[in-house]
Amino acid sequence: METSTQICVGVTFNILSNDSILGKGFYQLTQSKVLKSGEFHFPVFVDEVVNSLVINPDGIYLDATVGGGGHSKAILQRLSPKGRVIGIDLDDEALEYAKQGLREFQNQVILRKGNFKFLREILEAEGIDSVDGVLFDLGVSSHQLDTDYRGFSYLRDGPLDMRMNREQKKGAFHVVNSYSFSELKRIFLQYGEERHAAKIARAIIHARTRQQIDSTLKLAEVIRSCIPASYVNKTLSRIFQAIRIEVNEELTNLRLALEEAVEVLKPAGRLVVISYHSLEDRIVKIFFRENSKIPTSLTGLPIDEYDSKSNQQRIRLKLITKKPITPSDEQKRYNIRIRSAKMRICERL
Prior knowledge:
The chain has a 7-stranded mixed β-sheet, sandwiched between helices. Strands 1-2 form a two-stranded antiparallel ribbon. The chain folds into 3 domains: 29 residues, no CATH class; 197 residues, 3-Layer(aba) Sandwich (Rossmann fold); 106 residues, DNA polymerase, domain 1. It contains 15 helices and 9 strands.
């Protein structure tokens, strides 16, 4: 009698309390689950990404947020056998899904764990000094939101985690239970743009004096206790977003990664960025603008003269999209989570 066996893969993680590591845990993924790579994340703007990014079918492309591999697969399908994709992600589960989903292209794809702020170093380790295109699909994946033990969603009961890299020490538990009132208020204002920031920070401080806030639902309960019902859902989204950004240093890393991306792009290479909230999009918009036009005070000077008379770099980018691409009604019906998505494209000069 023939029996079937399943290969078990998973993720080892730290069990934290009061910023101390108490032990190790292991979340198991069976092969049957891993093979459902299409369920990890629904890639957005797939056609738009491929059409704008792939300018050379024989080229090398960097997917700086590979996730479940959806965009990478579409890019690889457009490439010739000479073309390659390098995929980076912080999430071990994402890399496992991508590995399984991209098996048919195993000779053309390299997957590496790492922070995209170090993308140039990651490429150099593979002997690559320049690429034909770079893609960033920012934010949190559907898998991370829908998996309770990752602690990203206020709709699911899970530990206060929110780490994209499960090996890093600081998680949401540390932020919620250790940050001062002023620190909590700052991140809720800065990263959540939440007008009730002070009230929520005060409520958290008060609640944790009685008992540690150690789960997503406990945190959501504290927030609900001090916010009018008419505001609560949007407020919960903003506060969880703020904590996630703080835990993963998302905006700081994005600024650094955009600079790295421009440095590794070949002339005429494309940089494509998909963002999901105004803070990300603002950073991308400003970066593209600042690198694609001469400052007003220097307008009229020849490029060479502009370079010699300022400490700023030469204009490096050409805008392909002056306004961001946004989802169609049909795309939003298919996946409601992309309703706020914006895609911006530029080209290396």
